[in-house]
Design a protein that fits this description.
five-stranded parallel β-sheet, binds thiamine diphosphate, Rossmann fold, alpha/beta, 28 helices, 37% helix
Length: 856
């Protein structure tokens, strides 16, 4: 494909790599300089302690492999993009985000840092108070402000042009890349994977991503596995595997691996007195490999095949081109280069000297263009960033055209164009008609998850042409009861499909893989490149991905402050097959911890919906798909026998407002009256038990003729349909607390929560309630293979516990006497014991419980 492909390894290149080698020298110099220099940025005078930063932060060792890769990619793309339009839609993902100094150096050279953080582009607000102009001053700012409190971070981040992967928590790279290339037909995601990163569970399963992505209708990932052999403090597993083992492994995983051994102690190009990078051979080999890979990718795209997708295994020295050894210890090609070598350069003169020698070895001053000292010229050049010149022409010539640069790819940043492919959303009444028929209150059998299935099916249908929607699920589409989507869309599978396999095709847009981590990585990659996706999973195992959600929130929070990033759809998760009803599985499948986790984040970007029934589920879904830049979780049960508590109108209001008193289940209040007791339900099963508890209480008072006593207190039912994570600095958080405080007033409160009780407690505390006036119940780790009622009894959230609390509280308030209290409590206990006896004998809840209806 290249116009001048080099012939043989030993042959002298027909390419002129002189510019590339210089480009690479800049990348490596600027990478290193970012750790150390606060002044004398280009070593124009002898290096002194006063030039060295007070804190030496960052990661050197991992930066150099990616630097080599970046320089080569630019070289290759610049040669080929003009003649081959298929090579213009390319993004770059850096798995080990700590290798950021190199990426940052490249972004400066590509002028994309100047585009976003220079003074030139008036449309883009510079979030920094220093300019990154494309001149020495701008480059000095890049070096100086690396890893500083108000400057650049030490890892790739949302402030990094072209990045949508933070890479701090390792392992996401391939999954993110997979999400990005899905339904982006022409996209090629070049993805650098670290060999330490490759030991993580997420990455280990992500090699399989290509089995869900046919390369004809989707883009393709080109993995470049940077095998530098070391992690933080020792060798990597992959670093000590033989080439045969590596080849066998990756062939088995479905790739065609090409190994490039560029290590100084094993390859024939080593030259310890000079950078081996100054020789042509390693560059010829890399260009040959890139050409082979891109050619093969474009070939495979014609058939959609993904078996045998090319990948490069780049074996390089960790800390490549850096200090070789110090005080008898090997630094380059060893884990000791991982962070900042010569970390005592500020206090140890010998280390300072060694640092100076090392930095000088790149001869940075030879690389600047000759006319940059002409200050008049400089001012003129600043006006037009693309025409500015800082380095020698042969270096600047390597940078691809602006719109084809990996860092400026419009799938990732908006650049003034519409990146977010808006979703057409269903008309809810159409969905209700299909699933519920009559949406008025009804004690019939309605499954919220059936409704979810129909809703998502409708979303697939409406967005068929735009191909901007996917569902990600760990093998649970059927199990979570959303199989209605298969009437519209299939599961993706790019391996052999047997005649008896169901709902599966090479083109499906439902991704079912039993790796929650890889799925969420795919989902975030899909979303951050402008599309929409739901992750549907068992509640108990959603916790597997909590740290991924935490990381995503950090990304969102920073991205939301950067105007050139543009909007993205929300990260939508449905947690179902919840712990309260776990008929097939029992104790191991009972864990609402994901709710605690997301609600404990200090942010106003996280909402968790707890719709009380199927109709409310519809309204919650509508909110989720229409929201932007947020994290939404929907928590709802999947069983069929759920009543409808509310009219459509009440439901809509209930979801809109996040909490409402439901009059049907509450005592009527006269003007200026307030509730003495409020029973609060959060979650479908828990709310039902509250309502049943109120009903049971009313019957009890009736049974014993306690008419006067019953009239003497007002009992209300509050349903909370949405909890948001709290941000102490946010108005929204204060509003919620105020509203809750107003509703509950001075009432005594009993609250039944779907998750762990302590998570809900905080909201009442924030609302100003005294903790002794609020009794919060929830999942207290009691469970097993048992019935729904028994789960409530075990966790003290049952209707009997509601009634018992009412009776106790009335006694405390002196509204009933001791005698009444005692016989009511005896009655409650007796009824509960009868139910337990029934369950023990028949293994199901009694008919009385199963057929219970409010007030009937
Ligand atoms: C999931 C996760 N576990 C642990 C770490 C801590 N950590 C940071 S860098 C690193 C070693 C990474 O090795 P590699 O991916 O090979 O990166 P490189 O050698 O290229 O720097 C580790 C363990 C992390 N960032 N993420």
């Amino acid at each position: 494909m290249t116009s001048k492909t080099p012939k043989k390894k030993s042959e002298k290149s027909t390419f002129d790599f002189s510019g590339l080698k210089k480009y690479l020298r800049i990348l490596n110099y600027v990478s290193a300089a970012q750790f150390y220099l606060k002044d004398n940025f280009f070593l124009e005078e002898p290096l002194e302690v006063k030039h060295i930063k007070n804190r030496l932060l960052g990661h050197w060792g991992g930066s150099n492999g990616p630097n080599f890769i970046l320089a080569h990619l630019n070289f290759y793309l610049k040669q080929n993009q003009k003649t081959n339009s298929k090579l213009r839609d390319i993004i770059f993902l850096l798995g080990p985000g700590h290798a950021f100094p190199g990426l940052q150096a490249n972004l400066f050279l590509e002028k994309s840092l100047t585009y976003y953080y220079g003074e030139i582009n008036k449309n883009i607000k510079n979030i920094y108070d220093f300019p990154v102009s494309y001149d020495k001053e701008g480059l000095a700012n890049v070096i100086k402000h690396f890893g500083s409190p108000n400057g650049f971070p030490t890892h790739a981040s949302p402030v990094t042009p072209g990045a949508f992967l933070e890479g701090g928590e390792l392992g996401y790279s391939l999954a993110n890349a997979a999400g990005a290339v899905m339904d982006n037909k022409d996209l090629i995601a070049v993805t650098v994977v670290g060999d330490g990163e490759a030991e993580t569970g997420t990455l280990a399963t992500s090699w399989h991503a290509s089995k869900f992505i046919n390369s004809k209708d989707n883009g393709v990932i080109l993995p470049i596995f940077n095998l530098n052999g070391y992690k933080i403090s020792g060798p990597t597993i992959f670093g000590r595997m033989s080439n045969e083992e590596l080849t066998d492994l990756f062939k088995g995983l479905g790739y065609e691996p090409y190994i490039l051994d560029a290590r100084s102690d094993t390859n024939i190009y080593a030259n310890r007195n000079n950078h081996d990078l100054e020789k042509d051979n390693v560059h010829i080999l890399m260009q040959e490999l890139l050409d082979k890979c891109f050619t093969k990718i474009l070939e495979m795209k014609k058939t959609g095949e993904t078996k045998g997708l090319p990948m490069i295994i780049l074996q390089s020295d960790k800390g490549w081109s850096g200090i070789k050894s110090y005080a008898g210890e090997k630094i380059e090609g060893n884990h000791l280069s991982h962070q900042v070598p010569l970390a005592k350069a500020r206090t140890d003169k010998k280390q300072l000297k060694a640092l100076e020698e090392w930095l000088n070895s790149y001869k940075i001053n030879e690389l600047f263009s000759e006319d940059i000292n002409d200050s008049q010229n400089l001012i003129k050049k600043r006006l037009k960033d693309e025409n500015q010149v800082l380095f020698l022409k042969e270096i600047e010539d390597l940078v691809p055209e602006k719109m084809w640069r990996m860092s400026m790819n419009t799938h990732i940043q908006q650049n003034g164009k519409g990146k977010l492919k808006e979703l057409k959303t269903p008309n809810l009444s159409t969905v209700f008609k299909k699933t519920i028929l009559n949406t008025e209150k009804d004690w019939g059998r309605h499954s919220p998850m059936n409704l979810v299935g129909e809703y998502l099916r409708e979303v697939f249908k409406l967005n068929k042409a735009t191909k901007n929607f996917r569902v990600f699920s760990p093998d649970e589409t059927y199990s979570n009861k959303i199989q209605a989507i298969f009437k519209e869309e299939e599961r993706a599978f790019n391996l052999e499909i047997k005649p008896w396999d169901k709902d599966i095709s090479k083109r499906g847009r439902v991704v079912e893989m039993l790796s929650e981590n890889t799925l969420v990585g795919m989902q975030t990659g899909y979303i951050l490149t402008g599309r929409h996706g739901f992750f549907v999973t068992y509640e108990a195992f959603a916790q597997v991905v909590t740290s991924m959600v935490d990381q995503y929130l950090k990304f969102l929070r920073v991205a939301n402050e950067i105007n050139w990033r543009g909007d993205v759809s929300s990260l939508n998760t449905i947690i179902t097959s919840v712990g309260w009803l776990q008929e097939h599985n029992g104790y191991s499948h009972q864990n609402p911890g994901i709710i605690d986790n997301v609600l404990s984040l200090n942010s106003d970007l996280v909402d968790v919906y707890f719709p009380i029934d199927a109709v409310a589920t519809g309204y919650a879904l509508e909110k989720m798909v229409k929201s932007k830049n947020k994290i939404n979780v929907l928590c709802v049960g999947k069983d069929e026998a759920r009543p409808l508590f509310l009219s459509e109108k009440e439901s809509k209001r209930n979801i809109e407002e996040g909490m409402t008193i439901l009059n049907t289940f509450s005592d009527r209040l006269k003007k200026y009256e307030a509730y003495d007791l409020i029973v609060t339900g959060v979650g479908d099963y828990l709310s039902l038990e509250c309502v049943a508890g109120i009903d049971f209480t009313n019957r009890l008072f009736k049974k014993y003729g306690l008419k006067k006593e019953r009239k003497d207190f007002k009992l209300g039912f509050l349903n909370i349909s949405k909890l948001s994570a709290s941000d102490p600095l946010s108005e929204k958080t204060k509003d919620f607390a105020e509203k809750l405080g107003e509703i509950v007033g001075n009432a005594k409160v009993f609250a039944n929560f779907h998750g762990h009780p302590q998570t809900l407690q905080r909201y009442f505390f924030e609302a100003g309630k005294n903790i002794k006036d609020v009794d919060v119940r929830g999942y207290i780790e009691r469970g097993g293979i048992t019935t729904l009622l028994h789960m409530h009894i075990l966790n003290k959230t049952s209707r009997f516990h509601v009634a018992s609390w009412v009776v106790n509280t009335l006694f405390d308030l002196k509204k009933i006497n001791k005698l009444t209290h005692d016989f009511l409590q005896r009655d409650i206990k007796q009824e509960m014991d009868e139910e337990i006896a029934y369950i023990n004998e028949h293994f199901i809840d009694s008919e009385k419980i199963r057929n219970w209806k409010f007030g009937i």
